[in-house]
Amino acid sequence: MNLATDPDTQYAGQKMKGLQMSGQIIIEKEFEKCTFEKCNLLECSFIRCKFIDCIFVDSMVSAVKFKNCVILNVTFRNSKVMGIDWSLAEKTRQLQFEDCVVSLTNLTFVRYADLRMLNCQAREVSFMDADCSGASFVGTDFEKCIFLRTNLTGADFRKARNYSIDISNSIIKKAIFSFPEAVSLLSGMDIILED
Questions:
Q1: Which residues form the domain of 146?
Q2: What is the mean pLDDT, run by run of 10 residues, along the chain of 195 residues?
């Protein structure tokens, strides 16, 4: 199946397995309750598309552009979801990543209600000026990520690691952290810690 040339504009409850697409432009398509399994979507552009209640499993979604797209309740499992600028989407809600690589990603300036990033590798991701209140980041590796002017109210960082959060320029009220990684929150305070 080639989504760029397929005359259908609505896909409901379909299982798309082994879909291979590179550099294609997909315009004004709607995917509802679809499963994408073992798909490779590389450098594709989805323009004014809708993804509602969809699941991506064992897939590669790399350098994809979601321009003016609506993305609601979409789950990525055991997938590589890299190099995506989520701020290009018109609306994102209930994004969930489980056991994924989400590195080199831009989550700047957007409200991510119900964001879940569980046991992921999220290296070099920008959360600058994002509202991630209530997010769950349990077990995720945040090496070289940017948390600046980020709303992390009530966010769950249990068992997360390698995060560096500018706590003087972010909101971390009622956020949950676990030791020993929580000590990293003191890194920007110009203090000396001793045993």
A1: 102-195
A2: 83 96 96 98 97 98 97 97 94 94 89 88 94 95 92 95 87 88 64 62
